[in-house]
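In response to reviewer comment 3 from the previous cycle, which asked for concrete evidence that the modeling workflow produces usable outputs, we include below a single protein chain processed end to end. The sequence was submitted unchanged, and the resulting C-alpha cells are shown without manual editing.
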Amino acid sequence: MKDFILPDADFGTPARRSDRTVTLTIDGFEVTVPEGTSVMRAAAELGIEIPKLCATDSVEPIGSCRLCLVEIEGRRGTPASCTTPVAPGMKVHTQTPKIARMRRGVMELYISDHPLDCLTCSANGDCQLQDMAGAVGLRDVRYTPGANHFETRQNGEANPRYIEKDASNPYFTYDPAKCIACYRCVRACEEVQGTFALTVEGRGFEARISTGASDFLSSDCVSCGACVQACPTATLQEKSVIEMGTPDRAVVTTCAYCGVGCNFRAEMKGDQLVRMVPSKDGKANRGHSCVKGRFAYGYATHPDRILNPMIRDSIHDPWREVTWEEAFEFTARKFRGIQEKHGVRAIGGITSSRCTNEETFLVQKLIRQVFGNNNVDTCARVCHSPTGYGLKTTLGTSAGTQDFDSVEHADVVLIIGANPTDGHPVFASRLKKRLRQGAQLIVADPRRIDLVRGPHVRAAHHLPLRPGTNVALLTAMAHVIVTEGLTDDDFIRERCEMDAYQDWAGFVAEDRHSPEATEALTGVPAEEVRKAARLYATGGNAAIYYGLGVTEHSQGSTTVMAIANLAMATGNIGRPGVGVNPLRGQNNVQGSCDMGSFPHELPGYRHVHDAEVRGMYEKLWNVTISDEPGLRIPNMLDAAVHGTFKGIYIQGEDILQSDPDTKHVASGLAAMECVVVHDLFLNETANYAHVFLPGSTFLEKDGTFTNAERRINRVRRVMAPLNGFADWEVTQHLANAMGAGWSYAHPSEIMAEIAATTPTFAGVSYGLLDREGSVQWPCNDAAPTGTPVMHEGGFVRGKGLFVVTDYVPTDERTGPRYPLLLTTGRILSQYNVGAQTRRTQNSIWHDEDRLEIHPHDAETRGIAEGDWVRLASRSGETTLRATLSDRVSPGVVYTTFHHPETQANVVTSDFSDWATNCPEYKVTAVQVALSNGPSEWQKTYSERARAARRILPAAE
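The workflow returned the following C-alpha cells.
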C-alpha cells in the first residue's frame, strides 16, 4: 500500500495561466512565476507559507482576513499577499517585526469571538485557525470577553447571536458558533460548485453564513462537499470525522461512480475510512466532487454485503454458504457439464463497467481462452454501444475526442440527450463556470433540465424535441448549416472524404429536411432550430456533449453519426474547446469497451475477423480463437429461452433491473442451468442465480479505470477485501478451476499484458501512472504521456467520413391505448440501479422512483400530486407515485430507474438500435391512470425476490 502525505498543499490562490513570466524576490529567494500570480502563491512555490484564513487555492482571493500581510520594498503599507499580483523585480518580506505584531493583533480579534474548546473540538489537529494562531505566535488575548457568537447565554440571558448547530444534512454539520466569517464556503459554493446555495446574512460583526432556508437539508445545497472542504474551522465538518476522529494517512484512488473519473484521497485511521476528499491533482475533477463520490461510500461496509460464497442446485432453493474452493469447483463442474452436453458455445459472460480494466480484461480472456467462444458482452450494450459504432465509423475511434479541461475553451456548448447536473455533476460544475464566463448553451432534450433555466445559468436555446426524433432534429440543423453556407469548407476539403461529404450535403439540403418541414415531427419551432444551428456554426469554438438520450434509441448509432457530421461540417473537431464528447454513465464504461468486452471485438476495438490480431492472442494464450462474433446480451437471453444457451458468468451487472423488457430477461435467466452472479449484494439478477461469488469494492483493490475522456486513472487498495479476494483474483481462481493455469500475482502484471497486446495502451504502466497521475489513451511511442485531444492533425481513420443519416421512425408508436411517451433518466443522489447509493444516506433525497407528468395530462386523468398511478405499456405495467411537473411537455412522462420496487424496465420494450442492439429505453408508448396499489407483477416479483434471498443458517 502506498500512502500519501496529508493534506494536499494549499497555495492560497488559484494558479494563473500565462505565456509571460515574472521574476521577483521573496525573503531573499528568487522565484519565477506566470504573470498574474499572487505574491502569496509565489511564496508558496518557494515553500514559504504566509499565514492565511480567508484564502485558499480553490477560490478567488478577497483579502478580508488581513492575516497574509507582507511588506514590499518601495511600497507604502502592508498589502494582502493574496490579492497583490507579482511584478518584475519586486522584493517581498513575509516576516518582519511589524508584520508579526499586526498578525497577532488580527488573530486576537478572531480568537476573541471563538470558543476555546480545542481539546474537545472535532477539528482538533485539522483546524487552520488553530494552526494560524500557532504560526503567528499568539499566546494570550487582551480583550475583555464581550458580545460573541459562541456562548449560549450572556449576563444570565439567552445570547441573541448564538445559533444552534445544524445537523440536518446526513453527512456534515454546520456550527455557526465556530464560524469566522471568512466566506470561503460561500465562494466555494459559487465558484467551484456553481449552486449559490450559501449567502451572508448581516453586516460586520453580525455577519453569518446562511442557506436561505430553515436548515441545510431543505436548502438548495447539493451536498457536493465544496463548502466543507473549504472551511478552515469546525464550522462545516463531516459527521464521520466527528464520530471517528481526524484521519492520519491517505491513499489516492479513483471514484467508482459515474464516468467523470474523479480522483480522491481516501483518508484513513488504521483500516477505517474516515472521509473521501477530492484530490486537487485529479485531472478530471480538479479538486471538486459530488455527493456520491464525496460521501456515499458507506455501502462498502453495509450489512447487506455478502462476504461468503453461496451455491444452490435450483433457483427455488435457499442459498447455502460454502468455501471459495467449493464454489469454484461447483461452478467449473456446472460449466464443463453444460459444454459437454450442449456445445462449447452454450455458455458466456458479461463484464462489468464498475470493475477495473484489469478485471474486465480477465473476464473476456476467461470467456475466449477458457470457455472457448466469443460470447462476451458488457453493460455498454445497453448504454453507449452506439457511441462505439458511430464514432468508429465517422472518426475512426470508439471514444470521445477531448479532455474535460477542453470545456474551458468552448464558446458554444450543445448538450443533447444528457443531464450533466444529475448524471455528471462535477463536469456540470465546470460547464456552468464556463457559461457564467459568457459561453452560450444549446440544450436538446424533451425535458427541461436544470441547465435550461436556472437562477445563474440559462440556455440560449432549448429544443424540447419529441422523444425518438433526434436524427430529424440534427439533420434539420445540418440543413441550415449547409444551405446557409455556414460550413468550414477548408476543414472539409483538407480533413474529410469529399465524395461522402457531397453526398451528405446534398441529402441534408433537401427541402424535406428543413426545420419547417420537420417541425411537426420534432415538435421544435423551426425558428429555434435555425437560431441554434447558426449559433453552433458561427459562435466560435463549439463542443457537443451527449448522453444516453442519444444512444438509447432505435437510431442511436445514426444519431451519433449525425453529431459527428455536424462537428466535421463546421470544423469543430481536433482542438481544445470543440469536439464530440460522450458522457459515459458508469465509472469504467469506456474501459470495459477498450478491454474487448464486445462479442465481435478483441481488446483495442479489433474485430475477431482480423487473423493477425487473433494469431497474436492465440500464440500468447495457447488456444484457437473463433473468428465468428459471439452472442450479445439480448441474443444470449433469446438463445436461453430457446434452449441453446445454458450458462452465464455475470460480473458486477444487474441485468434484471438494468436491461429492458424485464419479463424477457427473467425468462432467459430462469431457463439457464447455471447462472453465476459475482457482485457485492444479492441483487435482482441473483434471484435467478445458482452461484453467488462475493465481489469487492473499489476501496479493496488495485487497478485502473478509464473515464469518459479516455483518462486512465489508478485505483489503489485502501483496505483489505472483506470477502478475502479482489475481483480479479476471483476470476483467476474460477479460470484455474477450469484448467487455465493463470498465475497473475498483481494487477500490474495484467496491465503489462494489456499494454503488450493493445496498441492504444502500449505505453501504459503503473509506473507511468504513478509519475503522471493519469494519462489519456492512445498512450504509446507516438504519445508517451497520452493524448488529451484526438484527431488534431488528422482523423484516426485517415479522412473523416460523413454518413447520410436517414430518419427512420421507431416501431414504438403511441395510439389510443398508449397515448403518452415515457422517457427515463437519473437523479443526482442515486446511481444506476441504486445497489450502492440506496445503501447510503443518499436515499434521504430520493427514496422512490416517481413519475413526472405534465399538469395537463394529469388533470385529464384525475391525477393529483403524490397519487399512486399505474404505468402500463405493451410490455408490462408497474405502479409508482406521480409528480406534477411542467419540466416535461404534454404527452411525455419521465421517471428514474433506481429502485427495484418500481422496476421501470418492466414497461420498456425490446426495440433496439439497428446497429448495436442498444435498447430503446427513451421511447416507450404508455398509458397512465390512477391506481389502488402495486400491480400484480410487482406483488409476484416481491414474493419471488424474498424467496430467492433465503440463506440457510451456517452449520455449527
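Residues 21-138 form a domain with the Ubiquitin-like (UB roll) fold (CATH 3.10.20.740). We consider this sufficient to address the reviewer's concern, and the full set will be provided in the supplementary archive.
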